[in-house]
Amino acid sequence: MANFFDGSPTHEPSSGNAFARNPIDRRSEERGETSIPTAFADPAARLYLFIGDKAVLKDGSSDPLFPVDAAEALNLRHETLILLGWAATGPRLAATIPDETPLEVRGLRAIDLRALAVEGLVPPEHLGPLAQGRSLSYWHARHGFCSVCGQPSVMKSGGYRRDCPSCKAEHFPRTDPVVIMLAVDGERCLLGRQSRFPPGMYSCLAGFVEPGETIEDAVRRETFEEAGIRLGRVRYHSSQPWPFPASLMIGCHGEALNRDIVPDERELEDCRWFERAEVKAILAGTETIKAPPPIAIANRLIRNWVDAV
Amino acid sequence: MANFFDGSPTHEPSSGNAFARNPIDRRSEERGETSIPTAFADPAARLYLFIGDKAVLKDGSSDPLFPVDAAEALNLRHETLILLGWAATGPRLAATIPDETPLEVRGLRAIDLRALAVEGLVPPEHLGPLAQGRSLSYWHARHGFCSVCGQPSVMKSGGYRRDCPSCKAEHFPRTDPVVIMLAVDGERCLLGRQSRFPPGMYSCLAGFVEPGETIEDAVRRETFEEAGIRLGRVRYHSSQPWPFPASLMIGCHGEALNRDIVPDERELEDCRWFERAEVKAILAGTETIKAPPPIAIANRLIRNWVDAV
Asked: Exposure string (b/e) for A258-293, b if CB count within 10 Å is 16 or more?
């Protein structure tokens, strides 16, 4: 009898996406009011530190973790402590240090997670926890008040909930599903360019999943709205946590049903069909037109199609 | 040359899920400050009405739409008007009527969207727009205040944004990705029972995707946390908008790597392996143990596995 999972790859596409590797055991069911102080008091505890929305790294080191005493010396803001979970060697937390901290004199620097990932400054297994920490920290920073009644809310459950003491509302961290897709028409694929992109870069189209639609319908809607291209079959490829600030990228391929592009000029500076051979050269970096960086799921969607067949 | 989409079903699994059919053209790029009044003034405009979190239906009618004058006669709360988009016959909006509206004397009733879907009270193409309307209405009802600064926020962009006049923060509707999965071990699958389920019902395990994890990792984490079962390969099946209040259900199958269940008793009253033949009988409705209703993506994940091979 055939195995139900025949045809599913043993190497999972999602696991190859940047920010996807996260060895932390979250033990989400065990989170409670003592989780953070207990973890913080553990001599094996290590912290990922943020300043604003950037990660703090030590000059000349690829280890992004700080022991508790080093974090304390940087005046970590205790009210920003979040428990990420447990690595094999002990608890992992995230916290924010004050904006005005002088980093240079301490041999530290602040770096955006995108640059950190592109430059490969830390081993890939730290990117998932850093994404987790940044998304949660951002959510707390923007949710100090209850959206139901306007009163201050307080962090609970290890950093995975905020409660409103006034109206008793409970609030949970946001994760925003975003579809990102490569439309394919035989030997051509559709790439677009937003004005905010680096010079020469073209990428997949993308957009937020809205209330009341499936992943596949969101893929079709965004492709039609941005480029005037109707899609038939839509196939899921992989997903990626994308901490800018807290998206879940859902990567798909879609089968184009028409060829005439009607670009939405408010969204796209340009949008065109590219032949497979041209895309191969773009991925190889020999062209004026540039592909999105390998850390982007768009790069992997494009590469997956180029390498197929 | 093989077609890149070979192997993708022409009948998309997601399209068979309840709340998935949504014929409304959202034209999301065109939303602006005049969208709602312009659409509302269109004689072809029709409204889905809500009272609290329930839909308003006319007795003896399967048409959930109200013309503008009928909605006005019910004192629709103008500040709750949301533009869903355009059907072939005109604009579609959603609005809430006052909680104290006497429905019975007007030949109306309030019904939960779950019951409405289970009982098939309206044609399926209305379920998507009703889900869209309910999720958005719920979001506005719980986001009258800016979470950044605590001041009142105002609806913008046809109902797809709230702006804070005080701190200038922009807020967007939430859609919460939830993984729901059927763990499979050869001829057995794993079903669990929460104490809040109807008597005898067993279903798939499920949980929210957290910041910093992929869909597949969330599937594995939740299955391990709730049942102690480790999963290897995880395969996406379909997605479903689930307006209770605003989830995107992401349905997957997962390949079990061990057999010994360690149930999380805070989450599950019971959790067991079921043989394929037993599950067939459960789906047929001949057993004491009940399957989730066909409107639930869990039902379709189970049925898909039972029917496979």
From this structure: eeebebbeebbeebbbbebeebbebbeeeeebbbbe
Beta-carbon separation of A212 and B253 below 8 A: no
State the ipTM, two decimals. Answer: 0.97
User: Token pair for residue A182?
Assistant: 């490569």
Alpha-carbon distances, residue B244 vs B59, B94, B137, B240 (angstroms):
24, 17, 12, 12
Say what the pTM is: 0.97
Q: In a 3-state reduction of DSSP, which class is residue A308?
A: coil
With 0-12 / 13-18 / 19 or more C-beta atoms within 10 angstroms meaning exposed / middle / buried, residue B19 is buried
Q: What is the pLDDT of residues A5-15, one digit of tens each?
A: 987 877 899 99
Note the pLDDT of residue A45: 98
Nearest to B4 among A17, A171, A309 (CB): A309
Let me know: does A308 contact A182? Beta carbons within 8 Å. Answer: no
| Contact across the interface for A175 and B250, Cβ inside 8 Å | no
Q: Testing the interface with B: which of A24, A31, A160, A210 to mutate, by most B Cβ within 10 A?
A: A210
Helices vs. strands in chain A: H and E counts, helices first: 7, 15
Cα separation, B228 vs B220, in Å, equals 10
DSSP output for A126-168: GHHHHHHHHHHHHHHHT-SB-TTT-SB-EEEGGGTEEE-TTT-
Between strands A247-256 and A176-185, the pairing is parallel
Average pLDDT over residues B61-78: 97
Q: Cβ distance B138 to B80 under 8 Å?
A: no
Residues of A in contact with B12 (CB under 8 A): 216, 233-234
Q: State how far the Cα of B192 lies from the Cα of A161, in Å rounded to an integer.
A: 25
pLDDT digits (tens, 9 = 90+) for B133-182: 999 999 999 999 999 999 999 999 999 999 999 999 999 999 999 999 99
Q: Strands B90-96 and B46-51, how do they pair? A: parallel
Angstrom distance (rounded) from CA A88 to CA B190: 28
CA distance B232 to chain A (A): 8
Q: Stretch B26-31: mean pLDDT, rounded?
A: 93
Token pair of B11 as six digits:
């009948």
* Residues of B in Cβ contact (< 8 Å) with A27: 225
Contacts of A150 in chain B (CB under 8 A): 144-146, 150-152
Do the beta carbons of residue B213 and residue B300 sit within 8 Å? Answer: no
- CB pairs < 8 Å spanning A and B: 230
SS3 B39: helix
User: Which one-letter amino acid corresponds to residue A193?
Assistant: R
Nearest-Cα residue of chain A relative to residue B129: A212
Q: List, for chain A, all residue ranges whose pLDDT scores fall below the cut of 70.
A: 1, 309
Cβ neighbours around A72 below 10 Å, total? 13
Write down the pLDDT at residue B1.
54
Spatial separation of the C-alpha atoms in residues A293 and A290, rounded to whole Å: 9
**Number of CB atoms found within 10 A of residue A176's CB:** 19
Cα angle A157, A163, A168; round to 5: 135
